[in-house]
Amino acid sequence: MPEQQVPQDIQGELPDNTDSRVLKLYEKREKIFTRSVEGVYQRLRLFTGWPLLIGYFLSPWLIVEGHQAILFDLPARKFHIFWLTFWPQDFVLLAWALIISAFALFFVTTLLGRVWCGYTCPQTVWTAIFMWAEQVAEGERHQRIRLDKAPWNLEKLARRGLKHGMWLGFAALTGITFVGYFYGIRDLLHDAVTFQLPVVAAFWTCFFTGATYVNAGWMREQVCKYMCPYARFQSAMFDKDTLIVSYDAARGEPRGARKKGVDPKAAGVGDCIDCTYCVQVCPTGIDIRNGLQYECINCALCVDACDSIMDKMGYDRGLISYTTEHALAGTPWTWKRPKLVGYGIALVVMIAAFSTVLFTRVPLELDVLRNRGTLYQEVAGGYVQNTFTVKVINMDKVPHTYELTVEGIPSPKLLPDQPVNVSAGTIEELSVNVLVDPDQLSSDNTKIRFRVQSEDGRYRASSPSRFLGPVPVGGD
C-alpha cells in the first residue's frame, strides 16, 4: 500500500517524533513493566479479588440438592443456581437481573467512581494473577526490563518458559472451569481423561484457555483502554462529588527532587519529589499527575506508592488519594445529587420488584399449541373435535399431579380425560382432543383457555388458544 502524504497545511502541527511523510492512525503498544507495591488499598484488593477467584473455581464442585451448585444445563434447558432452578420461561428474570446490575453499576460509579474496575472486574483480577506470575518468574521491574533487553540465552529461555507455563496453566484452569459451568465439571474431567470429550466441548475449553492467556497475559491494559466500553461512557456518570483517584496539584507543584529532611517550602518546591513511582506501579501506564484520565481504573496502586514515598520523606500522606473535585476545591461533599438519588431510587424499586417476582413465582407453566394440520373434525355423536398439543412444565423439585380443564366453550369434553402426572423438573407433553356439540357454538372461531391446577390447589397456570368449528346456522 503506498504511503499517504500529509497535507502541507498540517505538517507544522505534527509532533517532532512523527514521520511527516506518513499519517499514522495507530500507535504501537509500548510494554509496561509495573513495579510491585504494598499498602492499604492493595491489602483491600485481597478481600475483593480472592473471593471472586475462590468462588469462580470452587462453585462448580459444590453439590446442592443433588446437582452441581451452578450449572447451566443447555440440553435440558434448566439453569441451576444453588437452590434455585430456572427455565427458559424465566428469561424475563434474567433480563431484569441484568438491568438491575447495570443500574447498580451506575449508582456505584456515580458514588465511588470506578471501584468495580479497580477491585472486582475479572480482567483486573486475572491480570493481577498473571502479573504476579511474571514477577515470580522474571523478578522485579528492573530485572524484567534488563531481561527484556538481553539477548536470548538459557537463563532468558528458562525464565520466559516458566512465565508462560504458569500463564498457560492458570488459563487452562480458567477455561476448564468455565466450560464446567455448562458441561458439568466432573463429567468434563472424566470425559477428558477417558478421551470421550466431544469436539465442541474440547473446542470451547481451548478457546477460553486461549482467550484468558491472551487477554490477561498479553493485552492487559489494552482491554481496559480500547475494548471495554465502560471506560468510554463512565464520564457520563461522574460528577464533581464522585470519588476518584486524584493528585493534589496545589500541594505537589512545583515538582522537584530534594534530599530527605529538606523543607519543601524553604526550597520553593511542592511535596512531589518527581520520583515517578506512581507511574511505575500503574497497570495502564498513565501519569495520574496529568489529571483525570479515562485509562485510570481506580486501583489505587499510585496512592499506596505515593504514600510510601511520603512516609520516607516525612511528609503527610494524601498527595495522591481518593478524593473528589469538590474536595480538592474546598467544597464539602454531599450525597444530595439528582443523579445519585435517581439511580438509588430506581435500584431499590427494581430490587424490590425482582425479589417479589422471584420468591412468589409459580413453578408451573402451560404451553398449548393447536394442531394446524386440520381446522376441525366431525366425529361420532355429532361432535366437533379440535386437537391440541399440551405441554405441562413442572418446575418444582417434587412431582405433581395436575387436572386439565378448558374454559370458553359450553360443555367441552377432553380426551383423554384423566389427571396428568409430571415428575419433578420435567415436561409432560400430550395430545388432547377437545369435543364440543356444534349446536352450542356461537362462532366458527371461539377463544378458549386451557387451565391446569395441581391436586393440592397450590399451583395454577393457563394458556389461551382457539377452537374452530363450522359456521353456525344463521351466521355470516
Explain how this protein is built:
This protein has 16 helices and 16 strands. It has 476 residues and is an alpha+beta fold. It folds into two domains: 30-361, no CATH class; 364-468, Immunoglobulin-like, CATH 2.60.40.10. The strands form five sheets. Strands 8, 9, 10, 12 and 14 form a five-stranded antiparallel β-sheet that branches. A four-stranded antiparallel β-sheet has the order 13-11-15-16, with no helix packed on it. A three-stranded antiparallel β-sheet has the order 3-4-5. α2 runs antiparallel to α16 (338-360). It starts with 39 loop residues before the first helix and ends in an 8-residue tail after the last strand. The relative contact order is 0.09. Mean pLDDT is 87; it is low at 1-15.
Note the topology.
Layout: H1 40-58, E1 63-64, E2 67-68, E3 70-73, E4 78-81, E5 84-86, H2 91-112, H3 115-120, H4 122-138, H5 141-149, H6 154-183, H7 185-193, H8 199-219, H9 221-227, H10 230-233, E6 244-247, H11 249-252, H12 264-267, H13 277-280, H14 301-313, E7 320-323, H15 325-328, H16 338-360, E8 364-370, E9 377-379, E10 383-394, E11 400-407, E12 413-415, E13 420-422, E14 426-436, E15 445-454, E16 460-468
Antiparallel strand pairs: 1-2, 3-4, 4-5, 6-7, 8-10, 9-10, 10-14, 11-13, 11-15, 12-14, 15-16
